[in-house]
Design goal:
There is one protein chain. The protein has about 80 residues and is an alpha+beta fold. The chain is about 50% helix and about 20% strand. The chain has one domain. The longest helix has 19 residues. The radius of gyration is 13 Å and the shape is globular.
Amino acid sequence: MAKYCECGICGTGTWCEPHHVFGGTSRKISEKYGAVVYLCRPCHEQFHRHPSAFLWLREKTQAKVMFEQGWTLDDWMEHFNKNYL
């Protein structure tokens, strides 16, 4: 669901769409631990066209979630099953 916010990539204040950093089977756990960023439509479209951007965001988000939760790498793997660092 779109909401008015600051885009997580370009910083523009506009209507943004949610992007689950760890989608698929990890979508709900992404929501639980705050691994969702809001992106403006142009950035969201561009983001999906560049696989290297996904890796960058996953690395950054994994480090953020691990820090906020006080998790070790083993804790991370228990929840997400894949390491991006």
